[in-house]
Amino acid sequence: MRITSGTVVSGKIVVDDDELPEGATVTIVAPEETESFMLSAADEANLLKAIQDAEVGRTVPASEVLAKISQRR
Asked: Which of 51, 47, 7, 54 is nearest to 28 (CA)?
């Protein structure tokens, strides 16, 4: 799994990563608002680790996550 960014140019997505193979399948997550954000190297590494964990079934139930969030308020 790889995370990269890109820009919409003339209605097509142009990715910043030129190492993706021709014909690669990509998933696009686009917020409804036009703001963008950048991840630090540490945050990107954490996100990639979380994705890998999820792919092999190491997950936390949503109810547990929501309970922890509500405790912090």
From this structure: 7
Residue 56's pLDDT is 92
Beta strands in the chain (DSSP E): 6-9, 12-15
- Contact in structure between 17 and 10 (CB atoms under 8 Å): no
- Report mean pLDDT in 10-residue bins for the chain, 73 residues: 78 79 79 75 90 89 87 78
> In the chain, how long is the greatest CA-to-CA distance?
47
Q: Residue 4: CA atoms inside 13 Å, Cβ hemisphere, count?
A: 16
DSSP reduced 3-state for 1: coil
